[in-house]
Amino acid sequence: MTLIALLIGLIIERLATQIFHWRRMRWLDRIIDQGFVLAERFANWPALIPVLLIAIVLVLPVAAVTVALVDRLFGFPHLLLAVVVLFFSLGPNDIGEDVNEYCSALDDDDEERVKQTAKTLMESDVPVDDMERIHCVEAAVCVQANNRLFAVIFWFVLLGPLGPLGAWAYRVTDLVRRRAVFQAARDENDSGTSLRVRDAAVTLHGWLAWIPARLTAIGYAVAGHFDAALAAWRHPAEQAGTSISESNESLLARVGVGALALEDDADEALNDRGVRGATAANRLVFRLLLIWAVIIAAMTLYGWTM
Question: Strand ranges (DSSP E) for the chain?
């Protein structure tokens, strides 16, 4: 059932581009914001406690339905639930669609669209220097692929019959993280502070992403240029004090870009270089997705998954 649900979910994720906006789930922002308001009232508590409580509240409905449907009607209701939950857990945006939008903006030489689409991939400010932006986008594709795709699949497969719960729990931590980062940035501008909640949300998400990030990095080495990826992995590690989330992203960026093994050509136009790099990163992600599918299929055939 796990493999069937995963394949159906991935096919829908690739084809149902017209309903991707449903996965943004803006209506959950109100619930998360209410949790942040309550967190302010218990400022003496470790910030991780209210963040965990918010995540638990959002996960509980899916957990209850998942447990209730296990082994009901030969597993078909559970299969349907798994497909639906997996679809909403992936993303929120399709990495391939974002890369295509970025490349289209480069082809059209639309500077404003290039900045906007690059910012969507990077989830941060876009560098002013064009070549630096190109390299940052390539690294961002490798990082976002784990956050939007591979980490969700990892928790979905790992928990077997409770796979929908694992996938949704990971997505919930990402939703809370995104909202906490947004609120912290807005509060700083208003001389307020939500930094403790933001850091706790980022830490919680980083814990759940730690194992998938390393499996994804290994996959990049296998799917791309192995020697270059291995050399990037052995590169001087993160500095002391680096958070677990920053450690995950740094590893994925280094190894992913190393696996691409792209070289800059002085005679190549910057926009063409940008398209080539982003496309290569997207192909690396797709190759790794195929590798994961084959491995999961083999595990299922030999009874190694639950």
Answer: none
Q: What is the pLDDT of residues 225-278, one digit of tens each?
A: 999 999 999 876 555 447 899 999 999 999 999 999 998 888 889 999 999 999
Give the residue among 217, 259, 249, 224 at the shortest CA–CA distance from 143.
249
Encoding tokens for residue 247? 């450690």
Would you list the DSSP string of 219-280? HHHHHS-HHHHHHHHTS--PPTT--HHHHHHHHHHHHHHHHH-----TTS-HHHHHHHHHHH
How far, in Å, CA of 279 to CA of 286, rounded?
A: 11
Q: If DSSP codes are grouped into helix, strand and coil, which group holds residue 166?
A: helix
Q: How far is CA 186 from CA 32, 178, 201, 246, in A?
A: 15, 12, 16, 22
38, 50 in Cβ contact below 8 A?
A: yes
Give residue 275's identity as a one-letter amino acid code. V
For 163, phi then psi, to 5°, come to: -55, -45
pLDDT in tens, 143-194: 999 999 999 999 999 988 888 999 999 999 999 999 998 888 777 554 444 7
User: Is the N-terminal amide bond of 92 cis, ω within 30° of 0?
Assistant: yes
Q: Please report which helix (H) or strand (E) contains residue 81, including its range.
A: helix 76-89
